[in-house]
Amino acid sequence: MNEAFTSNEVESPRLSAEMLLAHVIGCDRLRLYTDADRPATPIERAALRDLVSRALRHEPIQYLIGEGWFFGLQFTVDARVLIPRPCTETIVESVLQHARSRPGFGGSAGESVLIADIGTGSGCIGIALAKHLAHARVVCTDVSADALAVARSNAERHEVDDRIDFRQGDVLAPILEHAACGQRGALSYLVSNPPYIPDVEWDTQMGRNVRGHEPEIALRGGVDGLDAVRQLITQGPPLLRPDGLLLIEIAASTADAVRELAHDERLLSSVEIVNDIDGLPRTLIATRSHK
Ligand code: SAM
Ligand code: GLN
After folding, report:
1. How far, in Å, from the CA of 240 to the mean position of ligand 1?
2. Protein residue closest via CA to atom 11 of ligand 1
3. CATH code assigned at 34
């Protein structure tokens, strides 16, 4: 399996092979080594053959085993949602850091904190925040009813469904219609990993595992990649309370345009774009001013 994966350019061939085997046998990866002599049953062999042939067609391993990982938590994933990425953890880390250092932003009991997660997909951002901010209420939105079904099941899995509302709709529309969140200054945090791949990158730069298998609606952000990003930056700030944060994951190639859009917003101050581990500018973090 390892050799077939390597020659077919499947990502992380050895790890992928071990994950599929462990999934089929129903054990963790370590047991593969401690129990190496146990013969596979015919049913296990057939299941493995099917998964291997799908992996050879570059279907992401997380879809094959139905699990993804984000911020130390496990999420149920399938082809209805984007697979959570490590880069997106920057949004969660930045919110937690802010919340814990500012009185009234959710670090302690009794603080009422509202968070909106736009384009929630698997629910990973909103659920990780609800898990770590025990007093926060979160509204998770998506244009896709299929994605919301997955997000809802993940919220139940992590026992935070009693503090999360799920709403379907286009970008900020469900927030503006939400009784608690739609008011001026209601939100402490407006967070989003929206679709942001510009058309030219979609046509030329996407990996086979992404373009062939993940939902197109989760990825493509229009000609310049800014269809959703622009709406979040221009319509989001009034919904935030003073000192609240707007955090958006973006494509590195759009960083200059995003910086300009954010600088033009009267209600935003201290605009920064944080780099990912490869040094590429990937996360807009801007503060709602006191104006
Ligand atoms: N938040 C998840 C994450 O970080 O893994 C998923 C992010 S995925 C890049 C973008 C999500 O936005 C998808 O679930 C997609 O269905 C949703 N989406 C696409 N267009 C949208 C729109 N116009 N309004 C709201 N959500 C949208
Ligand atoms: N980071 C993802 C990718 O490059 C894109 C996610 C998105 O469009 N928000 O595959």
Report:
1. 20
2. 119
3. 1.10.8.10
Does residue 225 share a domain with residue 87? yes
Our answer on whether the CB atom of 228 is closer than 6 Å to any ligand 1 atom is: yes
What pLDDT digit, counting tens, does each position of 167-219 carry?
999 999 999 999 999 999 999 999 999 999 999 999 999 999 999 999 999 99
For ligand 2, whether the C-beta of 196 sits within 6 Å is yes
How many domains are there within the chain?
A: 2
Same domain, 98 and 48: no
Proximal ligand: closest to the CA of 69: 1
| Residue 264 DSSP code | T
Determine contact, residues 63/78, Cβ cutoff 8 Å: yes
Give Cα separations from 159 to 113, 135, 155, 165, 280 (angstroms). 18, 14, 6, 13, 35
pTM: 0.96
For residue 169, give Cα distances in angstroms to 117, 119, 280. Answer: 12, 9, 31
Residues 139 and 210 in one domain: yes
Domain span including residue 204: 71-288
**126 CA to centre of ligand 1 in angstroms:** 12
Phi/psi of residue 246, nearest 5 degrees: -110, 120
